[in-house]
Amino acid sequence: MFETERLIIRKYEKHESEHCIVLFTDAVVMKNVDRGVLSTDAAEKLWNKLINEMYPGGCDTIYAVFRKEDGIYVGHASIRPRPEKPDDWEIGYILSMEHWGLGYATEIAECLIRFGFEEIGLREIFATIDDDNLNSIKVAKKIGMSFNRYEFDEGGRFSVYSISLDQNQV
């Protein structure tokens, strides 16, 4: 578990499936996330995989995010190897729309980067961001990440940002 000034970031608990499923089935929230919005069935399958396979299998870097002041669910966060490039660890966050624009993404990203460098021992951390996701690009730059390269997938071109241990200012 981690704490920032305003947030608690911790592993999901089994009874919290609704948070994750509602978030992952929101088309607006998921517009710039991976392959996009999930169906309820797909979100439930992902939840079950997280709780029944990934956590028990040792994947413990996928988190629920809550406000400290009242315990309200804010969103989802992770730091994990990229599936297509397992040597590249990537930070990610997905926030409910009512929590956009409040600085939570920056707090989460700073916390994940610090954890990646200090606890996991990473030398470089990445973020993959759709070119039209200007808010996430702004967060990446704010936390010290720099544009690294363009990559392409079935959805088209996206940007890869990174920060290395020696340039970490977080």
How is this structure best summarized?
The chain has 4 helices and 8 strands. The chain is an alpha+beta fold and 170 residues long.
Find the CATH superfamily: Gcn5-related N-acetyltransferase (GNAT)
Q: In one word, what is the shape?
A: globular
Summed up, the domain count is 1
- Radius of gyration over C-alpha positions, nearest whole angstrom: 15 Å
What report would you give on this structure?
The protein has 170 residues and is of the alpha+beta class. The protein has one domain (2-167): Aminopeptidase (3-Layer(aba) Sandwich), CATH 3.40.630. The chain is 29% helix and 34% strand. The chain contains 4 helices and 8 strands. It has an 8-stranded mixed β-sheet with strand order 1-2-3-4-5-6-8-7, with helices on both faces. Helix 1 (17-24) crosses helix 2 (40-54). The longest helix has 17 residues, at 104-120. The mean pLDDT is 92.
